[in-house]
Amino acid sequence: MGNGFQSRTVSKLNSKALSVAKATALTEKMALIFSEIEDPRVARTRVHLLTDILIIAILSVIAGAKGWEDMENYGLSKYEWLEQFLAKPKGIPSADTFRRVFVRAASPLELRINPKIFERCFRRWVQSIVETVEAQVIPIDGKTIKGSYDRVLGKTALHLVSAWKA
């Protein structure tokens, strides 16, 4: 006879299945939203899906990636998690693949993906996430109080963080 409590294992599995389902739904929505972006690569040399490249690139930048190698390393370090909701037909794209998708080889300042279209798609995707998880955006602001440190006593500066909810 049950005691009214669920096993933590069952609860954890249900939670994981729910989060994978949400991630898959968001990935599918992202693929639809970002379909407006033309794939700049030659069709015969495409090994990775453009949506996989975009998702890994965006997630890695959110996590603090600073360059193409960081994007590849992020994908490799999160491989098991990413394979739950990305197709990844040939694994994680290389740093060179990320670079080739975003930057034209002839000029590092010339972008292959139209930044205006990317921004429009990105904004729509973020809005869809907010709607899907029914989240509210809460503006957060941070300041460091000038002159509030004390080198002699080894005290760091005072930091102030404010959050507003309308």
Descriptive notes:
This protein is mainly α. The chain is 48% helix and 6% strand. A two-stranded antiparallel sheet has the order 1-2. Helix 1 packs antiparallel against helix 6 (115-132) and helix 3 crosses helix 5 (95-102). The N and C termini lie far apart (49 Å).
Task: Please render the helix and strand layout as text.
Layout (H helix, E strand, L loop, with lengths): L7 H26 L16 H13 L5 H10 L1 H4 L12 H8 L12 H18 L7 E5 L14 E5 L3
Antiparallel strand pairs: 1-2
- Straight-line distance between termini: 49 Å
Query: What does the overall shape look like?
Result: globular
Poorly predicted ranges: 1-13
Q: By helix and strand content, what is the structural category?
A: mainly alpha
Major beta sheet, strand line-up: 1-2
User: Proportion of β residues?
Assistant: 5-15%
Largest sheet: 2 strands, antiparallel
Instruction: Tell me the number of strands.
Output: 2
Helix content: 40-55%
Counted by DSSP, the helix tally is: 6
Subunit organisation of the chains: single chain
Average pLDDT figure: 79
CA radius of gyration = 21 Å
SSE order, one letter for each helix or strand? HHHHHHEE
